[in-house]
Structures are given as structure tokens and as C-alpha cells.
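Q: I'm a student working through a structural biology exercise. My instructor gave each of us a protein and asked us to get a predicted structure, then write a short paragraph describing it. Mine is Oxaloacetate decarboxylase alpha chain. I'm not confident about reading structure output yet, so if you can add a plain explanation after the C-alpha cells, that would really help. Here is the sequence I was given:
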Amino acid sequence: MLTNLESQLKQQNAADKLDLVLAEIPRVREDLGFIPLVTPTSQIVGTQAVLNVLTGERYTTPWRCSR
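A: Happy to help. First, here is the predicted structure for Oxaloacetate decarboxylase alpha chain. I'll explain a few features afterward.
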């Protein structure tokens, strides 16, 4: 999961935001009912956390399955 997050952030030239994304993950997980962080849900939670941090707003760009 961590490698995937780092890759997503590097692709967006936002590698410096990793700490913010890591802090956002528990919030997203809580919003989704504390789902276990196993594949594929770990990628869904991680990607949503990245989107929340990069847009500066929570869930303005939700994954289809997190609606």
C-alpha cells in the first residue's frame, strides 16, 4: 500500500504530501465503516485519501465504489 501511495503522489509531483495522505487514511477508513485494509480495499482507501489530499477537499472526487 505504501509503495502505491508513494507512486501515486510522485506521478502528481506531490511526494511531499505523503504524511498528509497517511493522516487521511484513518479518516477515510472510518467513513467507510472501518473496512479491513486488504486488497482491494486498501487501494480504494489509499487512493481516496490521495484524492482528498490533492484536491484539498474530502470526497470531491469519490471512487465509484465509495459512494
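A: Here are two points you could use in your paragraph. The two ends are 21 Å apart (CA to CA). The CA atoms of residues 5 and 46 lie 7 Å apart. It's a good idea to check both against the output above yourself.
Q: Great, thank you!
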